Fold this protein.
Amino acid sequence: MSLRSLLAIIGVLAVVGLLVFGLASKGSSRLQPGDAAPTSTLPQLDGNGSESLADYKGKWVLVNFWASWCLPCRAEAPALEAFQQQHGGPRFTVLGIDTQDLSGDARAFVERYGLSYPQLRDGNGDKADEYGTTGVPENFLVDPKGKVRLVVAGPIGENELSGEVAPLLAGGGS
Amino acid sequence: MNRLALLVAVAVALLAPAAAATQPASLTEIEKQVMCPVCGTLLQLAESPQAQRERVFIERLIAEGKSEEQVKDALVAEYGDEVLALPPRSGFSLSAYLVPIVAFLVAAAALAAGVLRWRRGGSGGDSPSAGDGPSDEDSKRLDADLARYDL
């Protein structure tokens, strides 16, 4: 094979590779029930260390993506806190992930609504991308084995919490 | 007198960049250099609630006396490198600046090589130029072909 042919092939492969990479990086879709939940590590919102969803293995986790500037997040925060008060413990927790937000604003939000459940910080939105979210708030119920069991794209209210989440928790899983 | 004018000119030249560096940061200028991460546009063009909070954050830092670079550093600490409209000139992001330059140089070199080759090919060599007549052999073959069509 001549040098010219080799260069042409390398050029074509490079262009095709860039196109594939571009399509793949744009095409993240929202996680669906049955998918494994991502377990990459995030810093805690209060700045005291970092955590991963893997740290909650063996427990039901309601992953709640939110931001302080998001109006529907303000509406759902009291319902989430009430649900945490009622069901939180060794078998379940709400896990807040503050995304694309200012940390000071987010900490003020947590204080304002008296949120007692753990909060992680996703400043650049990478974690939200891993879940395939298209906005905030979005909620993903992850079972003790790390599989997504329920997706609520949008604010979660008392109806969804008592009608959809609570029965799954009561129904078991390991 | 000339010496005095020269001294003044040198002093102005030395002090001008320092004065520019110590100029207070401005929201209008920073808005042109950073993104609204949620909207995916320049902050200057964004009107979302997140953009409004970002502006408040910038204004607060400016009020604290932070320089433009310090404000941008604080934004990167909050939102990551993606908040910068232009990628940083370090690490992998440096490739965003180098690749176009390398691609331009490679394309220019390829073009120059092609032009040289074309010119060399046109000024003689193996291929006949437009001014040369046909060879004897070709002339004979042409005559023979034409003769077949003589009526």
